[in-house]
Amino acid sequence: MLYLKLIKFPDDHKRVYPYHIAAIRDLGVVTFSPITIFAGGNGSGKSTILNVIAEKMNTYVPVKKLIQECTRFFNCQFIIATHSPFILSLGSAKISSKIYDLDKIPIEVKQWYELDNMREYAKLFSENMLHFDL
């Protein structure tokens, strides 16, 4: 099952970050397959493309579920680089996981809720709970 079929990058934002980056500016419409790969050297825009797609489509929740199911039922292994709170919270699942905190020197292994960015998110939300209908 495809969670994401296509994405169209806006034409009217060609001078605004990140749409002015050649990798995004030249894409236009991206159609997805069961496996879609963005290939290129360092600085070519691969991560920027993925960040824009994630912001536009909010695909982290289905991706989190997919990772959990593939790991649990098909014994798959994932090696992930992210700062997404949704993906980081995979560490709370009933799946063996390890998070290396690259923001610390020396690098430390932590739980997702011990990471500085997660603590900042928690603080932000706890200070603004009245804005949410929970």
List the helices and strands and how they pair.
Blueprint (H helix, E strand, L loop, with lengths): L5 E3 L13 H4 L3 E3 L14 H12 L2 H15 L10 H4 L10 E3 L6 E3 L5 H12 L7
Antiparallel strand pairs: 1-2, 3-4
Quick overview:
The chain is α+β, with helices and mostly antiparallel strands and 134 residues long. The protein has helices at 22-25, 46-57, 60-74, 85-88, 116-127; strands at 6-8, 29-31, 99-101, 108-110.
Protein architecture, described:
- The structure is a single chain.
- Helices cover 35% and strands 9% of the residues.
- It is built from 5 helices and 4 strands, in the order βαβαααββα.
- Strands 1-2 form a two-stranded antiparallel sheet. Strands 3-4 form a two-stranded antiparallel ribbon.
- The model has no long low-confidence stretch (mean pLDDT 80).
- It starts with 5 loop residues before the first strand and ends in a 7-residue tail after the last helix.
- The longest helix is centred in the middle third of the chain and has 15 residues.
- The protein has 2 domains: 52 residues, no CATH class; 55 residues, no CATH class.
- By secondary structure, the protein is of the alpha+beta class.
